Fold this sequence. Notes:
The complex is a heterodimer.
Chain A: E1 2-19, E2 21-26, E3 36-45, E4 51-55, E5 61-65, E6 71-85, H1 98-105, H2 108-113, H3 142-156, E7 158-159, H4 170-176, E8 178-179, H5 181-194, E9 199-206, E10 219-226, E11 230-235, E12 240-241, E13 246-252, H6 255-258, E14 261-266, E15 271-284
Parallel strand pairs in A: 7-8
Antiparallel strand pairs in A: 1-6, 1-15, 2-5, 2-14, 3-6, 4-5, 9-10, 9-13, 10-11, 11-12
Helix pairs in contact in A: 3-5
Chain B: H1 31-41, H2 45-62, E1 66-68, E2 75-77, E3 81-88, H3 90-114, H4 119-122, H5 129-132, E4 154-161, E5 167-173, H6 180-193, H7 209-218, E6 230-233, H8 242-252, E7 255-257, E8 262-265, E9 268-271, E10 278-280, E11 282-285, H9 308-313, E12 318-320, H10 331-334, H11 337-345, E13 352-353, E14 357-358, H12 362-370, E15 375-379, E16 389-390, H13 396-408, E17 413-417, E18 423-428, E19 433-448, E20 451-454, E21 459-463, E22 477-484
Parallel strand pairs in B: 3-22, 5-13, 6-7, 6-11, 11-12
Antiparallel strand pairs in B: 1-2, 4-5, 4-19, 8-9, 9-10, 14-17, 15-16, 15-17, 18-19, 19-20, 19-21, 21-22
Helix pairs in contact in B: 2-6, 3-11, 7-8
Amino acid sequence: MSLEYSIVYKAENNYQNWVEQAHWQFLIIPEVNNNQEFVNIDFSNSVGATNQFSINGYGFKTIRVHPKQKFKNISFEATFRLIKKEVNPFDFNPSADIEQSYQKLNELNFKVDFEAFLKTTHFTRIPQAQKSMFDFEKDISIFENLQNLNHFVFNYLRFKTNVTDVKTTLDEIIVERQGVCQDFTHLFCAVARKNDIPARYVSGYLHQGNGYFGDSQMHAWAEAYIPKIGWVGFDPTNNLLANTNHIKVAHGKDYTDCSPLKGVVYTTGTNETSHTVQVLSQQQQ
Amino acid sequence: MDNIENQIFSSYERNPILYDEIYKKKGQIKKVYKKLFELYGKHSIQDYVNLNAKAKSSFFNQGITFQVYNDKDTQEKIFPFDLFPRIIAPDEWEIIEKGAIQRSKALNLFLWDIYHDKNIIREGIVPMELISTSENYLDQMVGIDPPGGIYNHISGTDIIKHNDGKYYVLEDNIRCPSGVSYVICNRTALKRALFGVFNHYKTYSVTNYAENLLDLLETTKPKGVDVPVSVVITPGMFNSAFYEHSYLAKTMGVELVEGRDLFVENDFVYMKTIKGPIKVDIIYRRIDDQFIDPLEFKPDSTLGVPGLFAAYKKGNVTLANAPGTGVADDKAVYTYMPQIIKYYLNEEPILNNVHTYHCSRPDELKYVLEHIHELVIKPVDEAGGYGISIGNRLTKAEIETVKKQITESPRKYVAQPIMSLSVHPTYIDESESFEQRHVDLRTFTILGKDKEFVLKGGLTRVALQKGNLIVNSSQGGGSKDTWVLKG
């Protein structure tokens, strides 16, 4: 059994004064992977500029727009249709060879292979005082520890919008104990890496039919690498394992690598921006 | 003594502790300098004052100036130039040239490795921290094959002569090394002031740099390109090295552009011209990594070209030097250069590295703490001379502070013996006489696909303040014409 999703992403920008030059790059196209199959993509902008498809530095598909004439407002609309296979997060035996799995984490080759997702970045730096806020227990499996961590982050932070922004770091988040999916994910990744588990930040869409937290924007969750099992998705904002409702777009070390929209806009004065995301699903036989 | 008959050197004080490049140990002039010494000796100090003024105006007239911003009013300044040239004999040059090529090649292989399989780390030759804690390691470069297999097309190697008479490398500059235009302008200025002296020496020309640069850059053109179009991209006329950018573009015969002159369409790079867009294949970029593409790196940069990195990743354009090369000119990498050269080339290093003690290793830490008065302590991650402590210039209290810092975070520090740079006679305005001043040498090496070139000459930088060891132009350094003699 699988689900067909249709995702509608809309962005609208209004500027007080003329924009003479602008470049945008969208990182919003669902990734094609083992359980995501693409059906269709439709992207348009209101000024009739060409939409160029490209690949960013981390290998993910992007759409770039560079209007050739000046404008005061511009809107973008993308519709993606894809088939998502049923995901069973428990399709492995998590408790096999506990000791061996921990040993693997200490091997140099393992550390080199996952170097990018083990290192501390701007958004995944835990302040000195909280260095041991969550230590793994070595007598239970890595998977169980990660589930506990997921639970810990979910309980540690309160979901609240508009108290943090894309620049907020863990120093503030850990003290204020509130934030959005991005902050939950950064904390999860930071603690996992602190415990030598490769962890990556994932951006994507969440089908919210079940009343999960997220918002009408893009969602973020984490993937952690467990030896012998592979990458497993954890959604600390909802205390869930990533499942059929999670549609992945990209992953990276932290938000910086995955920001859905990057732009260079030459204008003066103020501007207003709004984004909406709508995810619809339809069961398939 | 030779200098008694020579009036302009009559007051030259030769400090025997320092390694003076023009004297032999016992105080006689070295053979290669004899003629020069004699020729310069025919002039009076007054002639010299006049010639010096003439040389200075030659720089102003050519527009070879840099700006000093921190003064109250911005001033156009010239990089002080000294009329007494430095001579490098053929046998010594051979060592320098071979050594510079060896280092550049080893660094290129190192860069390929750390952006691909990382074998040197897996085999435990260098620690993983060299890349995982480096600000200059670009994850985006992992797996990219740069056109022609070249990362560091242009390397500037800073070399000194220690008081043991041997050459040591202090630094490998492989981001955007500058200074080559001064090498050429110094030669021009000296020829204008004292043409006659060139008749007595067979010196290699330095004016062939640009043609070799273009030639070698073209060997690394993107696949499928027949006759490549090259450009030089500059941050703009307010950059302190703008003269050099325009000089190189002019002498290579290519366009000098800023970011706004280029655009990317369907992952190809184009230059705007009055005749319409022209596809660009090779970009010699004098803009730092973080500024080359606001859609991939620093988003608020207006210096670069949106979409440039995607074009590079696709293999549609060559960037020289490649993004991410900066990781290899970190101080920490420098300390592993002997191992890096051995690992990739299976050769012994031709040029010496200054021995480095890693405070992270317990036995070396012990040595450092016991010998701190004869060592230079450097933080691993600071550039531009910040945070450096020179052991023999510290007070007792300062030594204790430094020891405490090292003991607390040994990973952050390395230590090196205090090097004594050689000295060279330099005309000093204030005393109106020649005095000993410390010098170094920056050489310029170009790597192409299966081809390499070292400019036969280089930038000899002079620390103009007495006793000063820092030769940077921002620290009041000057420069000399540097002659490499034909064998």
